[in-house]
Amino acid sequence: MYYAHFGLKQAPFKITPNTEFFFSGGNRGAVLDALLYAITTGEGIVKVVGEVGSGKTMLCRMLETLLPENVESVYLANPSVAPEDILHAIAFELHLDLLEKADKLQVMHALQDYLVEKHAQNRRVVIFVEEAQGMPLATLEEIRLLSNLETRHDKLLQMVLFGQPELDVNLNDPGIRQLRERITHSFNLGPLAREDIAEYLIYRLRTAGYFGPPLFTKGAINRIANASKGLVRRVNILADKAMLAAFADNAYAILPKHAAVAIRDSEFNDRQEKTVARYWRQATFVITLLLALGAGFGLHSMLRQSPTSQPAKTEPSQSPAAGATLPQPAEEVSVTLDSQTDNDILTQRLKATKIWLLHQPSTIVTIQLMGTNSPDQLRHQLKDIGAMVELDNLFVYETEIHSRPFFTVLYGSFENRDVASRALQGLPKELLANQPQLRTVGGVLNETKQLQ
User: Fold this and answer.
1) Is residue 81 situated within a structural domain?
2) 33 with 170, same domain?
3) 0.70 surpassed by pTM
4) The pLDDT of residue 293 is above 90
5) Which of 71, 145, 170, 367 allows an S-S link to 411, with CB 3.0 to 4.6 Å?
6) Can you give the chain as a three-state secondary structure string?
């Protein structure tokens, strides 16, 4: 819309990664060079950690374009791969010819033969794993076992793990300390500094075809820097909206007032976050007061029966597990409540889960508490778990492993991984002992579809 107004040939601030717009400032170029060195010298497992929107995907795309011709890359974008499926996923990406029902051992042998053949041709294979913080710990351990494939002098397979800061938390788990010991290089993508943001903005504009003087005034840059907290994706969103505001104002410079319009229109506006937080603080105070006055018994029962009364955003001082649950559709709640007439708790949760899955966006995050192939054992466990957390927020779905039914128990619906991580940390220690994992509804749906 505003391209001709500013003399641009293309969109300068799209959030879709485009390697033409790669900005080497803010230490991005140095990290890219170090990654290339690590891969070409056969350094095993490498880790790159950065906040959401810090530019990890762009870095990964750039890395793929700059790899030497003798390096073959495999890209794994789905973090919800089960441990028993990770080898098949890698084999699929490498286009290995496998039998339809090849087991884990057969896939491993085929993979090793392929890697040995590539090594004999002086070629390397590297796996890029995006959103690695969302991978189950058992899957990460399977990846670690792949690092054992080696000759006397070289690793046959290299891996680069891209993840959010939660990846570091996961890697501190004692159960996968062997994987942590195999990581030879760790890089961190920090936020852009204020001076980096000024260079970033003009660099993107030049790449998009702009030839004039700097468009963004110092005041506008300062506002964008403060609101974005240096995260590249946020900078792109704010810069695009600020330019649109300037175009609507028939201005040829982006002023602080245009940046202010962009900030007000953005969902990550700190003022909005503070307003929402203040609202929920007030709501929490009122509920607490009612309970203290003895009028809260019916309210408390209603809260435990229906997840719809729980806010999506909470203050850190509240219980993460209880406060982070997203509102659920009305018909899902009615099914859940009606199912209480059924004495079989497992049947209740299976029915409720089918409705729940139908109404959840694939990006919703949930917590995988446990799994078992014994229905009778699960019935007893559901009663015990229901005494520790809200029963209506427990979901159970059925899959098959080795042609036998397998039941997985999930807890809660969370808008993003940050909220889900806080909820996970707030679970009772009895549940934490099972090493719960974060899952997405999309990953769960993929598993259930395999039976259809």
Assistant:
1) yes
2) yes
3) no
4) no
5) 367
6) CCHHHHCCCCCCCCCCCCHHHCCCCCCHHHHHHHHHHHHHCCCCEEEEEECCCCCHHHHHHHHHHHCCCCEEEEEECCCCCCCCCHHHHHHHHCCCCCCCCCCHHHHHHHHHHHHHHHHHCCCEEEEEECCHHHCCHHHHHHHHHHCCCECCCCECCEEEEEECCHHHHHHCCHHHHHHHHHEEEEEEECCCCHHHHHHHHHHHHHHCCCCCCCCECHHHHHHHHHHHCCCHHHHHHHHHHHHHHHHHCCCCCECHHHHHHHHHCCCCCHHHHHHHHHHHHHHHHHHHHHHHCCCCHHHHHHHHHCHHHCCCCCCCCCCHHHHCCCCCCHHHHHHHHHHHHCCCHHHHHHHHHHHHHHHCCCCCEEEEEEEECCHHHHHHHHHHHHCCCCHHHEEEEEEEECCEEEEEEEEEEECCHHHHHHHHHCCCHHHHCCCCEEEEHHHHHHHHHCCC
